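Appendix B.2, paired examples.
Example (i):
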Amino acid sequence: MDSGPSDLERELPPDDGQLPNILPDDAERTSNAGSRGIKPRPQPTIESQNPRLLSSLYSFLVIVSFFLVGFAAFRNTLTWHLQRFWGASGDFWQSQWDRFIDFTGDDPARLWVLSTTIFTMAVYWVFGGIYTLFDVTCRPAIIRRYKMQPGTNEPVDRRRLAKVIATVLMNQTVVGIPMAYCMYQAMRFRGLNDLRELPTFHWVLAELSFCIFIEEIGFYYAHRLLHSRRIYRYIHKQHHEWTAPIAITAIYCHPVEHVFSNLVPPFLGIFMLGSHVAVAWLWFTLVILSTLNAHSGYHLPFFPSPEAHDFHHLKFNQCFGVLGVLDRLHGTDALFRTTKAYARHIMMLSFIPAREAFPEPAKKAF
């Protein structure tokens, strides 16, 4: 059972929130080493950063392209089946949206504040609840084969779980509803779209791509800041109580962290583009499903790999981002890339568990 911060977390100081640079002490040590005839430690140069930058850009393009192709295929397949089921013609999604607006009314405040809160909470607890059932019941037994940290939360401690549920509900209501109202006011200032008319599918794909890019930037740097020595113990430490997280610990955190790390980064892209409320709901759904998967503790087949963020909870000062693009750029995945967890950091396209496909090396007997 997960019992709190790991030994490594207690030993390592929090990240100082600064990007890698050459400290004066390093320069002095390099000079002294040269005077003693010792080969100085090589310092990072602009040239050495270029391959890392190109690798980061390549990773971003691959991830986003894969997502867009997969999402487009899923949407087209789903639309075809739903049209056959309902016998609808023309623009299926627009006709369903018209029905929804006729039922709820077209008050933008109600849709952006109340409906957004209800919708996002429903997505979080429906899918998070499925993961939680796995952890509480340890059923089905086969699901344990996909644990990234075997032996943890088997079953999950009920008292710790109750604390998580209470904190998450507080963040979703006491913090989330006022933030939803603030976001609505920001969208009003930005300029609201016609609620009745949905954007084209291709424009939705473009907006989702932009939101992915903006969230990666916003979340990475907000997360790095939360790991700074001056802030960590007061805010982010609560979230790191779980070194082997479960899905619903995704927003188990201090209210300040919930605002600036969980709510603002996903909203930035929506605000900058002035997106339709339906696009916002779609984007928020993808964000929620992603963070539930990242904290689930399971590397399930045909799901995006959660290995990087699970490694972050285990080792504390690695893998701060969502996609890993900025981690690669800033070198905050250096330790992760030397482990078997990095080899497993792929979408498994078979039912073979990642830990069996890429086993840990056998320990040498003494």
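Example (ii):
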Amino acid sequence: MKNHERVANLALAGLTVAPLVVKVDPNLNVILTACLTVYVGCYRSVKATPPSETMSNEHAMRFPLVGSAMLLSLFLLFKFVSKDLVNAVLTCYFFVLGIVALSYVLPVWAILLSIICCKATLLPAIRRFLPNHWNEDLIVWRFPYFRSLEVEFTRSQIIAGIPGTFFCAWYASQKHWLANNVLGLAFCVQGIEMLSLGSFKTGAILLCGLFVYDIFWVFFTPVMVSVAKSFDAPIKLLFPTADSARPFSMLGLGDIVIPGIFVALALRFDVSRGKKSQYFNSAFLGYAVGVVLTIIVMNWFQAAQPALLYIVPAVIGFLAVHCIWNGDVKQLLAFDESKTATSEDDDATSSKKVE
């Protein structure tokens, strides 16, 4: 981990816990938290080998439709079923999901929050202290009555999940905003780190589709805002305010992860060309400008805003202008991580045959 990544992790740690001890302006908190989370997730997404699975154009086109169906289903569920019952089921789901996220992906600041100190993530930190067979031997557990469903894990993964279990138990019992934010940030970092758009064409299709999705469900229906307020789970970040009538400002995780995976793609494009963070800087700047615009318009009209309305044009626009200025449009549009992964697998296979 490089120095600038450590600084970003520590800054995010400080910003996360700061409202517990000092008054932090919620608008500034939203902007800095969103930008730092994207920054941390982007650099964690840079790995020695390209991702083996990427999103296709067809999946990107379908994503807003699937998201709309899910959103409407949740809206109807909250309307016709007890809100407490729905949230109880969702809490159980996110309890398990949170344990996995805390075990695998959280950087040093979040592990500190869960009373564990390590260098990067909990699992790699404890592996070296455990016997090799604990790290390598897989345990397979099959669901009763559904024998085709199975879960594979190692003993070291169980050990790594213990602190996360206690942390998620605290979240489930107290629903404290800090626990909510730590889990939400874990999901964001994991999403940006592990999801790959594959190409900028696919990314543009996805962002443009969700641009329309966000505008429709926020401006033309009460569905998005209603679900966000009813959904008592870490699908949004909560920022304490001094207003008793509105104790928290909210930012949906999708407003971080969706643009974040596009910005991360720009960083990996720079790395693949062996150059400094050229297009990453422009895409990241576009994201920051988009978040700032969202906050300005929200405060001006005193109403909820579809963040992607401002973030998507800013991210794509800043990157496009920079790319056109440098004359790299062809190279950027030709970049495809799925093809890179396939070619590397073919090279590895052919080298084995030669041996």
